[in-house]
Specification:
Shape: elongated
Number of domains: 3
Strand order of the largest sheet: 1-2
Distance between the termini: 122 Å
Strand content: 5-15%
Largest sheet: 2 strands, antiparallel
Radius of gyration: 36 Å
Structural class: alpha+beta
Helix content: 25-40%
């Protein structure tokens, strides 16, 4: 059998079959020619890794031109294998282009700030981390809870005096 040139890389190959046109171990298993090729039915993670191999990473974000990019973003939201449908963006620009930034800011505490409250124990004004907080500090919470204990279960002062008088006798 005469030698041929691989259609992909150009190396000379000695095919066992006259239909062979690619290197059997490398080029013959790349992309569409590989046995695991799923076409457009591939998942998002696999598609991202496929595009990541084909599209070189840029030094700066392709939108703001300031921050180094970390995300491979899809422009059309159709997740095609077309390299021109993808771009390297910083996280903020990626979230803006997907419409996720507005949703994130609506639900973040920075823009949905919990109003200041008055402490139930000392009456001081404080900024709670959670809406359910009622005290400005742990000491106010402990003091408040200790004062709420049922006094009927505690020993009364005159009972203590009687107990002391009996031990002295």
């Amino acid at each position: 059998m005469p030698t041929k040139r691989c259609l992909d890389c150009g190396k000379e190959i000695n095919p066992k079959d006259k239909r062979t046109v690619y290197c059997p171990k490398v080029c013959g298993k790349r992309g569409e020619r590989g046995g695991g090729w799923k076409g457009d039915a591939v998942g998002k993670d696999a598609l991202h890794s496929y595009i990541r191999k084909l599209l070189p990473k840029t030094d700066v974000c392709q939108h703001c031109k300031k921050v180094p990019p970390i995300d491979l973003a899809n422009k059309s939201n159709e997740y095609k294998r077309d390299v021109s449908d993808w771009e390297w963006l910083c996280r903020k620009c990626h979230m803006k282009s997907d419409g996720r930034l507005e949703k994130f800011l609506q639900h973040s505490n920075m823009h949905n700030k919990i109003p200041n409250k008055n402490c139930l124990q000392c009456g001081g004004v404080f900024t709670p981390k959670y809406k359910s907080r009622r005290f400005c500090s742990k000491s106010c919470s402990t003091t408040y809870n200790n004062l709420r204990i049922d006094y009927s279960k505690r020993k009364k002062p005159n009972q203590l005096l009687i107990a002391l008088d009996m031990t002295e006798k």
